[in-house]
């Protein structure tokens, strides 16, 4: 029985190691870059008014992108359920229905609060 969890543990270890390795590589490369005035100025001051054409994309774009990623990762959990549905029977169907219901409630709440608006 415990040997069946080896692939899951391996995947969890890789998933946990990926951001750590990415941040370590990023820190390694960024430490070699010279500091510029643009990077060194504090963000709390607000955007600079001199020679600024505005942000590359609005903040709402980033929020919608993060919401998409969160819900897309949650949907990935439906694939193992779909593969084992015949073995789980009605219990698996009820659990998956509750899971999808929670996701739909989350989408409805985000839509109602205006999180998916592009402005």
Can I get a quick summary?
The protein has five helices and no strands.
What do these coordinates show?
The protein has 119 residues and is an all-alpha fold. It has one domain (7-113): Methane Monooxygenase Hydroxylase, Chain G, domain 1, CATH 1.20.58. 69% of the residues lie in helices and 0% in strands. It is built from five helices and no strands. It has helices at 6-30, 37-40, 59-76, 78-83, 85-113. The chain is flat, with a radius of gyration of 22 Å. The mean pLDDT is 77.
Features:
Methane Monooxygenase Hydroxylase, Chain G, domain 1, flat, mainly alpha, 5 helices, 119 residues, 69% helix, single chain
CATH architecture annotation: Up-down Bundle
Question: Which overall shape is indicated by the principal axes computed on the Cα atoms?
Answer: flat
- Tell me, rounded to a whole number, the average pLDDT: 77
The total of beta strands comes to: 0
Major sheet attributes: none
How much of the sequence lies in strands comes to under 5%
Please write the string of helix (H) and strand (E) elements: HHHHH
Which parts are unreliable, with pLDDT below 50 for 5 consecutive residues or more? none
| Name of the CATH first level | Mainly Alpha
- Determine the fraction of residues in helical runs and give it as a percent range: 55-70%
> How far apart are the termini?
52 Å
CATH topology name, in short, is Methane Monooxygenase Hydroxylase, Chain G, domain 1
Quaternary assembly: single chain
Q: Any idea how many domains?
A: 1
* Structural class determined from secondary elements: mainly alpha
């Amino acid at each position: 029985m415990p040997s069946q969890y080896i692939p899951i543990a391996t995947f969890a270890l890789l998933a946990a190691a990926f951001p750590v390795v990415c941040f370590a590589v990023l820190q390694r490369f960024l430490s070699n870059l010279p500091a510029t005035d643009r990077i060194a100025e504090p963000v709390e001051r607000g955007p600079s008014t001199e020679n600024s054409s505005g942000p590359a994309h609005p903040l709402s774009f980033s929020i919608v992108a993060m919401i998409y990623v969160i819900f897309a990762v949650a949907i990935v959990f439906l694939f193992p359920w779909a593969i084992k549905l015949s073995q789980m029977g009605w219990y698996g169907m009820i659990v998956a229905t509750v899971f999808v219901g929670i996701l739909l409630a989350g989408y409805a709440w985000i839509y109602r609060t205006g999180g998916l608006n592009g402005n």
